[in-house]
Design a protein that fits this description.
Elements lengths: L6 E7 L7 E9 L2 E5 L7 E6 L4 E4 L8 E5 L4 E5 L3 H15 L2 H35 L14
Antiparallel strand pairs: 1-2, 1-7, 2-3, 3-4, 5-6, 6-7
Length: 148
Amino acid sequence: MASKAMRGFLTKRGEKNKFSWKRRFFEVQSQTMVYYEAESREKEIGRLSLSDAIIRHAPDCKRPFAFEIVTGSRVWQFSAENDAERDAWMEYLLQVAGTESDANQLISRAEALIFASCSDQVLQEATEDDQGSRQVDGGGYDDSDADE
């Protein structure tokens, strides 16, 4: 578990309006990420449970320095001011969530399996197409151009 508290500004993507990004003040309390309108923390806007959350980079996000927190109910997207700030938030959140290594390893393995499966299917279809194009009327294969 992380030893010191983490707090600061991040820009958060809206849940209802996906084109809306708002700068909010965040504070991690135990395994909960609380966010406010301002640094004064007078008006709490929402909470995000980090228990069993997956924290990862957001490669499909067009905003710079973006990362995601995936929960059972939502994919939360955030943008930091720079690489160092994003990395600091991610490292801290990974420690707090406590399941990062197993979850991220599972995702990586799943993505690799999907890619391999798709590659195998494309290869198999290409092989079947190639064999079908070399088949002659008698049911045999014409291997005369196999060496080319």
